[in-house]
Amino acid sequence: MTSTSTPDPTPRALPVLDQDAITAVEERLAVHDVQLLCGTVVDPAGVIRAKAVPVARTGAFHVGGMGASPSWNVFCTDNAIAFRPGFGVVGDLRLRADLTALRVLEGGLAWAPTEMTTQDGTPAPVCTRGLLRRAQAGLEERGIVARVGAELEFVVTERVGHPWNAYGLGPLLDLEAFVQELLAALAAAGLPVEQVHAEYGAGQLELSLPPADPLAAADGVVLARTLAGRVARRHDLAVSFSPLPFADGAGNGAHLHLSLHRDDRPLFSGGDGPHGLTREGGAAIGGIVAGLADLIGVFSGSVLSPHRLQPGYWSGAFACWGLENREAAVRLCAATPGNPHGASVELKCIDPSANPYLAAAALLGLAADGVDRGLPLPQEVAVNPAEVPGTARLPAGQAAVLAALEASPLAERLLGPDIRTALLAVRHHERETYGDADVAGVAERFRFTWSV
Ligand code: GLU
Ligand code: MG
Fold first, then answer.
1. Which of 196, 205, 313 to mutate to test the pocket of ligand 1 (most atoms within 8 A of CB)?
2. Helices 214-234 + 356-372 axis angle, to 10
3. pLDDT value at position 6?
4. Whose CA is nearest to atom 7 of ligand 1?
């Protein structure tokens, strides 16, 4: 998409540079040996938050943007989330980097401000940089040119008590050397990431890997975890891929995005159903949603998993689906200009204690089961499922999770008896040995179990 081929329907949106201009920026970054581009947004509380991409993704950061929940705008200074209508767990905004304002910083880093748009590219009314852009343009339309000079006062002090701002730029820079080295290691191993950011929990990072065929995707998880552990060692750090690294902290998810095609045509877009779903795409979602309760022991089966799979943790604790619904187990990410990979469904009720091969196989199996049975698309949940009485909660507690797996003919069919027997055996051992123990102790005991 370029400004030459697509007329901009919203004149005051951040203009889309043409490909030549984007290439010129990329060349400038290459000349300066920049590896990572951080794009910032300042939220209403005044906190600077960020998403970052490897430089190869500079154009994607500018044109389509990187995703952000509308609730980013109501993150509080203490990381509480002051939910309001329209600023909840449903919906998706795009952060688009303004490459005309990009600066090359020393040390392999570049910075650019971002603006928030909706997925179709319309400026988001909540975007403060967009508001200023319009205010400036408004004066210019009146023939008036404004100039503003800012003063910065600040105190220089010892580095103690630095907070972990969720999705903040500060936390990302605290870990900059580690992040830069990890991204370089991943790229060198042929696994360039799509984006990286400081997640909600203290010390928590998120890497997004590009879509690949399922085997390569599961291999990629293993390789990425291997490199994360290896680079961490060099920095005298450690990385936890536990569902609950610290009892009082945020959970780690291991979400999987699934897209499906038939004859090169996507099943989750371009159809007649809601949000462009095709009949088969709807059936696949039907199969996934219908089978989640049976298979949750594959996706979130460890003794720590139930402590993460809770309402309010964006972990998908409800067996339902919804467009851009971060509390639904199945979040539909529709094909929009802001989502160049096209439509996918994101399985959220999965954590890193799951075997990635087994989890991906189970996910594919559920989708295939829905297609084979021609299941109808289930009713969409368009709000926080906790607010909809009767929305099915996934089995809560490891005993219930394992009982569901044990009783399920579907699980036996999709996994085969050997895998199911072995999985149940190890998870029952966990439950019997640690299930009644204090959560803080269990979190500590298994903090690095799923790490390399
Ligand atoms: N950390 C959350 C989880 O456990 C996910 C947060 C997010 O949706 O970005 O799945
Ligand atoms: Mg996340």
1. 313
2. 160
3. 45
4. 314
Closest CA to 289 of 324, 329, 337: 329
Q: Which atom of ligand 1 is nearest to the CA of 348?
A: 10
Confidence band, pLDDT 50/70/90 cuts, at residue 244 = very high
What's the pTM value of the predicted model, to 2 decimals?
Answer: 0.87
Residues framing ligand 1 (Cβ under 6 A): 250-253, 308, 313-315, 326, 348
User: Which ligand is in closest contact with the Cα of 346?
Assistant: 1
Average pLDDT over residues 146-175: 89
Per-residue confidence (pLDDT) for residue 2, from 0 to 100: 40
Helical residues (DSSP H) of 73-210, grouped into ranges: 128-141, 169-174, 176-188
Backbone torsions φ then ψ of 112, nearest 5 degrees: -150, 145
Distance 150 CA to ligand 2 centre (A): 34
Ligand 2 centre distance from Cα of residue 427 (Å):
26
Q: What are the extents of the domains in the chain?
A: 19-125, 133-445
CA 40 from chain center: how many Å?
17
Nearest CA to ligand 1 atom 6: 314
Q: Quick one: pLDDT at residue 341?
A: 79
Structure tokens at 196: 């990286």
Which residue's CA is the closest to the ligand 1 atom numbered 3? 253
pLDDT of 313 > 50? The answer is yes
Tokens of 429: 């051992």
Ligand located closest to 207 CA: 2
Name the class of domain 19-125.
alpha beta
User: Cβ-count burial of 432 within 10 angstroms (0-12 exposed, 13-18 middle, 19+ buried)?
Assistant: exposed
- The yes-or-no verdict on residue 11 having pLDDT over 60 is no
Structure tokens at 257: 């995005």
Q: What is the longest distance spanned by two Cα atoms in the chain?
A: 76
Q: Are 206 and 255 in contact (CB under 8 A)?
A: no
Token pair 């979130």 is at which residue? 300
Q: Which helix (H) or strand (E) holds 310?
A: none
CATH of region 133-445, choose from 2.40.50.140, 3.30.590.10, 3.40.1190.20, 3.30.1240.10 = 3.30.590.10
pLDDT tens, position by position, 337-386: 888 777 999 999 999 999 999 999 999 999 999 999 999 999 999 999 99
| Ligand (nearest to CA of 205) | 2
Quote the CA–CA distance of 337 and 384 in Å, as a whole number: 25
Tell me which of 208, 246, 252, 318 to substitute to probe ligand 1's pocket, judged by most ligand atoms within 8 Å of the beta carbon: 252
Closest residue by CA, ligand 1 atom 4 = 253
